[in-house]
Amino acid sequence: MRDAGIEAPQREARLLMAVASGLTTSDLIIRGHQPVPASLADTFHAIVARRAAREPFQHIARTASFFGLDLVSDRRALVPRADSEVVVEAALALLPEGRDARVVDLGTGSGCLLAALLATRTELTGIGLDASSDAADLARENVERLGLGNRARILTGSWTEWTGWADVDLVISNPPYINAATIASLDPEVRLHDPLDALDGGEDGLAAYREIVMLARAGLRAGVPIVFEIGFDQRSSVSGLMADAGFIGLGSSRDLAGNDRVVWAFQAES
Ligand code: GLN
């Protein structure tokens, strides 16, 4: 796996053995001296080969941890990223605690942002929208497994056709934002195994933001915020297009690596 460019091959090999055997990594240490049955060795070698082909660990394990939740993760949607947890935190800070509110997650993918919001605040309900029916199926599976199915509705469809803008109290979105020139240089885990539609933000990476901002400006009630995940170099361009459209109260925050990762702004009076 080191030859395949995996950064921490021994650590990942231990975790893959845990996946193959169904045991925890500490059980594996305790049983370390016991011989490995041939069938387990075969399973292990097969999944090591998948990881060496740079399939994301989360797809092999079929699970990803996000905001303290265990989510199902596979090739139907982007693997939930730790960086996106700050998007959830920013949205929570904008929602007064204890007050019922309806959120919409545009391009919900695995459903990670919506699930994290609803799991943290029981007073929230929400809609997760995705143009991919595969992604919507995955999101539905996730909210149901987490017991959030009665507060989350997952819909297949594009935000251009969605008509519920006037009914929501917060918009959250991690839209596709990678520009055409950058796609080819993404890590193989992302480039080869995440759905391209979830990454491709058009020529300048801003196509989805432009569409959403325009639709939101026409449809949201005054005072409703949009919270966007952004690429590390998109803070001024995304806040610029929100300001140009007439959104007010611009804010931003960074991820754990110190990169700009979130921007938000509020619908003004019309
Ligand atoms: N952060 C993701 C990446 O680096 C991109 C996510 C997106 O386009 N929304 O691959």
From TrEMBL:
- Reaction(s) this enzyme catalyzes, per UniProt: L-glutaminyl-[peptide chain release factor] + S-adenosyl-L-methionine = N(5)-methyl-L-glutaminyl-[peptide chain release factor] + S-adenosyl-L-homocysteine + H(+)
Give the stretches traversing the membrane.
none
The Release factor glutamine methyltransferase N-terminal domain covers which part of the protein? Answer: 2-60
Binding-site residues for S-adenosyl-L-methionine, renumbered to this chain: 107-111, 130, 159, 174
- Which ranges carry the Methyltransferase small domain? 93-180
Q: Which GO terms describe its molecular function?
A: nucleic acid binding; peptide chain release factor N(5)-glutamine methyltransferase activity
Q: What is its EC number?
A: 2.1.1.297
Q: Please verify whether the record's keywords include Methyltransferase.
A: yes
The record's Gene Ontology biological-process terms are: methylation
Q: Which PROSITE patterns match?
A: N6_MTASE (PS00092)
Name the domain of life.
Answer: Bacteria
User: Which Pfam families does the record associate with it?
Assistant: MTS, PrmC_N
> Keywords in UniProt for this one?
Methyltransferase, S-adenosyl-L-methionine, Transferase
Q: What class of enzyme is it?
A: transferase
The residues that the entry says bind substrate are 174-177
Q: What does this protein do?
A: Methylates the class 1 translation termination release factors RF1/PrfA and RF2/PrfB on the glutamine residue of the universally conserved GGQ motif.
Its family remark reads:
Belongs to the protein N5-glutamine methyltransferase family. PrmC subfamily.
Q: Which HAMAP family match?
A: RF_methyltr_PrmC
**The protein's name in its UniProt record:** Release factor glutamine methyltransferase
Gene from which the chain derives: prmC
